Amino acid sequence: MNALTGHELDLARAQAQAAVRQLRQSIGALDDKSLDLILREARSHYAWTDQPVPREMLELIYEITATGPTSMNSCPARFVFVTSQAGKARVAKSLKPKNVEKMMAAPVTAIIAYDTEFWRELPFLFPHEDRRPHFDGKPDHAEETAFRNSTLQGAYFMIAARALGLDVGAMSGFSNAIIDDEFFSGTTLKSNFLCNLGYADETALFHKLPRFAFDKVCDFA
């Protein structure tokens, strides 16, 4: 671990606080069209054009995703970008039949996974205090933390992709056990969910389904 101390720590904190203040002053909030793009009018897509997604775009999506907050900055998510026909065939083994065509047509299928031993990297990610004893020898707690936070990172990933002009279609209709056997055998990684990525063919869309009103699902305490 190599945590900042003394004057260096004070300086780093001051710089971080100033950066947040400056960002708030320059932006404040996203406009309605931006909110529409990433959430309000965004859709889950199931049909795709053949326009490719370059590696540089995937690297940028990850860069943005990685900045999102996780517990103790644990960053347990791991990403496999499946783009080859051979890789797609391996993914297809895990899918329910209705999902195969959706996945095969997408330029990229991302496997959002998590490392059950993410905590071994905490000296790098969370250097100012050794939090490894919170997880060492506690596999259930480690897995719960990894799953929860990789799910958060998967959501950041989808929003980042949409913000950059891509379309996404998350999928849970697959066998995690088969994906894990195909891609993560002999490792400490496990799959969370799949996400198709590319430029959608919107002609496959139907009307947007209802959402609950605030008073139906929200309360105060």
Q: Which shape, going by the Cα principal axes? A: globular
| Tally of individual helices | 9
Please give the CATH class of the largest domain. Answer: Alpha Beta
Q: Could you list the spans in which at least 5 consecutive residues all have pLDDT below 50? A: none
Layout of secondary structure:
Elements: H1 6-26, H2 32-40, H3 55-66, E1 77-82, H4 85-92, H5 97-105, E2 108-115, H6 122-125, H7 139-163, E3 167-171, H8 176-183, E4 189-198, H9 214-217
Antiparallel strand pairs: 1-2, 2-4, 3-4
Give a structural overview.
The chain has 221 residues and is of the alpha+beta class. The protein folds into two domains: 1-30; 32-203, NADH Oxidase, CATH 3.40.109. The protein has nine helices and four strands. It has helices at residues 6-26, 32-40, 55-66, 85-92, 97-105, 122-125, 139-163, 176-183, 214-217, and strands at residues 77-82, 108-115, 167-171, 189-198. Strands 1-2-4-3 form a four-stranded antiparallel β-sheet. The longest helix is centred in the last third of the chain and has 25 residues, at 139-163. The chain is globular, with a radius of gyration of 20 Å. The protein starts with 5 loop residues before the first helix and ends with a helix.
